[in-house]
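Troubleshooting log. The previous structure file for this entry was overwritten by mistake, so regenerating from the original sequence record. Sequence copied from the archived sheet and checked twice against the printout by T.R.
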Amino acid sequence: MAGAPASRAEPTDVRRDPVVEAVAEVMPCVVNVATERRVEASDPFQEFFLRFYGPQNSSSLGSGVIISEDGDLLTNLHVVNRATRIQVKLSDEAGGAVYEVEPVFAQINIDIALLKIIPKKKGEKFKAVKFARDDDLLLGETVIALGNPFGLGESVSRGILSSKRRAVARENEPLGMANWLQTDALINPGNSGGPLINVRGELIGINAAILQEAQGIGFAIPIKEVRAALNDILAPETASRWFGARVSQEGPLEVTSVDAKSPAGKAGLKTGDTILEVNGKKPADFMEFNRRLREGPGLDFTLAYRREGAPGEARVHLLPFREFFKQRLGVDIQELTPALVDQLGLGRLGGTGSGLLISGVEKGSPADGASLREYFVIAGVEGQRVHNAFDAFQFLAGVEKGEAVRVSLLIPRTKGDLILGYQRGEAALKLR
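Regenerated output below.
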């Protein structure tokens, strides 16, 4: 209408700078992690983190960050290690509800634990943080450490990226300060396990520690190492399914390695292939790709891929670990549960409480030839202790047919059907 006054735009709130916007975006992804048991066991991190923190409380030990809508979340392993019960509390922005949590897997060398929120209703979704690109780090850029410490509410500290990691992590060695990101953003014990983000609201690291001897120096595990750990943690093998290939963690799902003897190798997958679909559906990223192989109702998968510009298809049958041990050794195995340990008297009668219980031996098999019998416990392979089926699989998967391996055993001493105790022994098995 002629003569009508021009509309006036709402004034911009000058307080809402990129840091405030990033915090508002990510804080709903941040949780408080509470445990029911004091972390006091001897493990690779005990002395290291006592140096940073001193003794820790028995509950509300740290923070975590949700990384998928399905409720996967990351924290530090030292926050939840040896906890008998884990709960998380969402931030106030996400409703503040408390959820039970189950552990999925962990990486000791990197001090990362993956947990899974148990939803209260079917189809429940959670706010998830976005990952930054690997090595997309600028010295001096503004970074923000978020947490939900001690169940008291949200915590935010701001600083700069003071240093990128100074050294490349060596295989099978724990990450230390030389491998971590350094920042002057305050990272107190309660923020441990929470996210370190950039002003775009992207996850660049997992808060790990603050050095008490140096005022205002904090450290975080770089996103590149977090991604690599997740790729190992979420691999089908940690769900007792042998796939035998790894895909890239960033960008297109390119196959980065293939074990020629594995189901993936036998199906024809090769390094450099780009995965397009799993059973007719495109996975969003490497986490979804691995999850489909881990959690699919069956063991048969059709993988559509591109190789040097040409389409291809691989039909993969994942091999359950129970079948792997039966094929290679000729044994049926069970992982030791607390109930089995009590039932068999392993803890009381000199056992270790960890290992693989032999529940059956195939006649004429390598195990039978080495005089292994039902109720023997495989405690180690080639001098390395075996805690579970995944440990044993890792030791045995690379052994060629006909090669011998040395197996450490716990051998029951019996009187009739009664187990009186266990004695240690060894056997050499030629794998088939």
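The chain has ten helices and 26 strands. Archived copy saved in two places this time.
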